[in-house]
Amino acid sequence: MVARKTRQYVETAVESLTLAIELFNRPSSTGREHATIMMAAHAFEMLLKAAIYEQRKKVKFSGSDRSFDLGKCVTVAETSLGVIDEGDRVVLIALKDDRDTATHDVIVMSDDVLWLHLRSAVTIFRKVLLGLTGQDLTDVMPGRVLPVSATPPTDVGLVVGKEVEQIAELLRPGKRRNAEARARLLPLMSLDRAARGETEPPTEAEINRTLRGLKESSDWTSAFPGVVGLQLVGSPRPSDQVQEISLRIDPKRGEVPVRPAREDEEAAAYREVDTFDRYSLKLSKLGEKLGLTRHQGLAVAHVLDLKSDKKYYRAKLTAKGNIAWQGLSNHALEHAKRALANGLDVDEAVAQYNGWSRSARGPKK
C-alpha cells in the first residue's frame, strides 16, 4: 500500500499524461506542440516525485523548502532509485528541455518528432507506474487512449534526417526563414544534448553555429553526434493493448569518434569550441542550480574538490594573475547533483568550508 501523498502524485501524473495524449491526438493544431510537451513534462515530474516520495518521504532540496524540479527528479530516479535507465533519461531530459523552451520561447515539432517524444515517454510512464503501484497503464486509462500516428516512425535517424532537410530548406537563399528554422532546430538539439549527457540549454552561439552548419551541409551526423547512438526499439515489457516504444543508446553506433586535428592536418569536420563554453556555469551560481544558497553551493564545490579536476573547473586570469572568472562544466554540475542525491550532508559541507575559509584567511591581527 503506497502512501496517500504518493497516490496524489500518481493521480495528478495520470491526469496530466491523459491531457498530453488528448492534446497530441486533437484535430486542431492550435498550441498543440507547446501544450502537449508541457503536460507530458508535468506528468513525469509528478510520477517521479511519487516514486521518490514513496521511498524517501521527501521531495525537497536539502536545506530548502523548494520542491524538486523535473531535472532533479530524473537524476534521483536514475542514480539513486534505479527506476529509470540511461535511455529513459535521454527521453526525459529532452522532454524537460523542450518544456522549458515551449514555456519561455518557441518550438516547432513535426508529427514524427512529437510522436517520438510522447510515445517513448508513455512507455517509460508505464514502466515506472508498474514498479511503483503494480498498476498497468491500461488500469488507469483505456488502451485506445494513446498517441496516434498514421505512419509511426521506425528509425530515429530517419526522423532527424527529415527534420534537417526541412530546416535546410528554410535556410535556403531567398527564403531566410531563420526564426522558423531555429524553432524546428531546438527540439533536435535537446535530444542530442540529452544523449550526450549535457544538462544546460544550448547558448545562442551554439544554436547559430548549428544553423550555419546545417545550411552548409546536409550531413546531420556531425551536427547531432549524440543522436547517432539512439535506436528506436520495442519494450521488454510487451502488452496486448499497449504498443511499446523505447529509445536506447546503442554502444556500437555511439557518437561520431573525434579527436583534435593538428594544425597541418585535414579534417572531415570541424567544430569550434570556446573553452569557456564548456565551463559556462559560474562557480558562484552552482548553489542556485542545485536549489541551494550561494554559500552552500561554494561549500559543496569545496567538499567535492571540484577545482582540482580540469574536467570540472577552469579559471580565467587577468594579466596580473588575478582570477577574473571561475567556471564549472556540466560534468561538475552532474557530479554535484549525484553527490546530493547520494546523501551529501550540506550542513556538514558548510561547516568544513567555513573552517577552511577561516584557516585560509589566517589569524586576525
Structure write-up:
With 365 residues, the chain is mainly α. It folds into 2 domains: 246 residues, no CATH class; 87 residues, no CATH class. Helices cover 55% and strands 6% of the residues. The protein has 15 helices and 5 strands. The strands form 2 sheets. Strands 3-5-4 form a 3-stranded antiparallel β-sheet. A two-stranded antiparallel ribbon has the order 1-2. A hairpin with a 5-residue loop joins strand 4 and strand 5. Helix 2 packs across helix 3, helix 7 runs antiparallel to helix 8 and helix 7 crosses helix 9. The chain is flat, with a radius of gyration of 22 Å. About 10% of the residues have low confidence.
- Spatial extent as radius of gyration: 22 Å
Strand content: 5-15%
Span of the ends, CA to CA:
63 Å
Strand count, sense and barrel status of the largest sheet are: 3 strands, antiparallel
Helix and strand pattern: HHHHHHHHHHHEEEHHEEHH
Instruction: Calculate the mean pLDDT score and round it.
Output: 82
Q: What characteristic shape results from the CA principal axes?
A: flat
Number of helical regions: 15
Number of DSSP E strands: 5
Query: Major sheet: order of its strands?
Result: 3-5-4
Estimated structural class: mainly alpha
Total separate domains: 2
Oligomeric state as shown: single chain
Report the helical percentage. Answer: 55-70%
Question: Which regions contain 5 or more consecutive residues with pLDDT less than 50?
Answer: 235-243, 251-277
